[in-house]
Design brief:
The chain has two domains: 141 residues, Probable inorganic polyphosphate/atp-NAD kinase, domain 1 (Rossmann fold, 3-Layer(aba) Sandwich); 171 residues, Tumour Suppressor Smad4. The longest helix has 14 residues. Helices cover 27% and strands 32% of the residues. A hairpin with a 2-residue loop joins strand 16 and strand 17. The chain has 325 residues and is α+β, with helices and mostly antiparallel strands. It is globular, with a radius of gyration of 19 Å. The protein is built from eight helices and 18 strands. Strands 1, 2, 3, 6, 7, 8, 10, 11, 15 and 18 form a ten-stranded mixed sheet that branches. Strands 14-13-12-9-16-17 form a six-stranded antiparallel sheet, with helices on one face.
């Protein structure tokens, strides 16, 4: 086996559980006589750059030891990205696959793929089987979202979910939490961040247009554009969302005050928030979200990283990426 055919494992030791998971993973792969290359990320953007370089050099499998943010970075590296280009990003190697070795805070994308939490050993076993015989391994082809801020000068890939408003504020707070907070569960960390964000929040006037449909204007504090089933530490913004249906789901809140947000937050984990008539889910292949004034501008986060502010547009890239499952 030459070095180009070996899987490349990227480890983000800043992820919640990566420093514990990686020694176990390395030992198991050695025991199974799996040959591999690995690199430890040092700064944001490493996973994307190293994935892209490896695929361009002939590597066929990239594995991620980390959370949703690192996974999203690596997924971006499967594509050639050009700022200002409205066309969908082009894959470098459509036959290449991404393997997940979850070790993050929420691991929401992995959870959504299998309908719940699965232990690291389950994902590791799938990876070992894939390394031994990639052609016979079962993979799942998933959609991705292509996001464009403003006039498209900044574009990005979103693998799992993007949020605007409180959701983006929460993502920023989770990313800034200290080492002590990493001892808590992902759900607890997201809940504490949400309470802090809500205390300083006000509703913003926005417009939302899905595909070429009606342009809806409302006062909102949370908008979610969803590809995967779970986001934000196990929340189901759109319980009908599927990663391979060729659609994105858009959840909006309209006229939902702070007290109601507090009441609805726990219900989002079960999808019960959709019983509230002020919460709406729309489905399509694209969405454009704009603030109605400069002071109403909303921050935009995708897969845990804040990308910019409105206006923003998302489009589905159907059947974009192969995942080892």
């Amino acid at each position: 086996m030459n070095s180009q055919s070996r899987p490349l494992i990227l480890i983000n030791n800043q992820a919640a559980r990566a420093h514990i998971a990686w020694p176990r993973i390395k030992e198991a792969l050695t025991q199974h006589k799996v040959r591999f290359d690995f690199r430890e990320t040092m700064r944001p953007g490493d996973a994307e750059a190293w994935t892209r370089a490896a695929l361009q050099s002939g590597c066929g499998t990239i594995a991620i030891v980390g959370g949703d943010g690192t996974l999203s970075e690596a997924a971006s590296g499967f594509f050639e990205m050009k700022a200002g280009n409205s066309k969908s990003p082009q894959p470098i190697n459509s036959a290449a696959a991404l393997a997940i070795l979850p070790a993050g805070t929420g691991d929401d994308f992995a959870r959504g793929l299998v309908g719940g939490r699965a232990p690291l050993e389950t994902w590791l076993e799938l990876f070992v089987v894939h390394c031994r015989n990639a052609e016979q391994t079962r993979t799942r082809t998933v959609d991705m979202l292509h996001g464009r801020i403003g006039d498209g000068a900044q574009s990005f890939i979103c693998l799992n979910a993007a949020t605007l408003g409180i959701g983006a504020e929460v993502a920023g707070r989770v990313a800034a939490q200290g080492s002590f907070m990493r001892l808590l569960s992902g759900e607890a960390r997201f809940a504490l961040a949400a309470l802090g964000a809500l205390a300083q929040w006000r509703e913003r006037r926005v417009s939302v247009q899905v595909d070429e449909g009606e342009r809806i204007e409302c006062q909102s504090n949370l908008i979610a554009v969803v590809n995967g089933l779970y986001a934000g530490g196990g929340m189901m913004f759109a319980p009908a969302a599927r990663v391979d249906d060729g659609c994105l789901d858009v959840m909006t809140t309209c006229g939902v005050g702070r007290a109601m947000v507090l009441r609805e937050l726990p219900r989002i984990h079960s999808g019960g928030h959709l019983a509230n008539p002020k919460v709406r889910v729309m489905r399509g292949t694209s969405v454009r979200i704009e603030a109605l004034s400069r002071k109403d501008a909303l921050a935009v986060e995708a897969d845990g990283d804040v990308r910019g502010c409105t206006p923003v547009e998302f489009r589905v890239i159907p059947s974009a990426l192969r995942i080892v499952v």
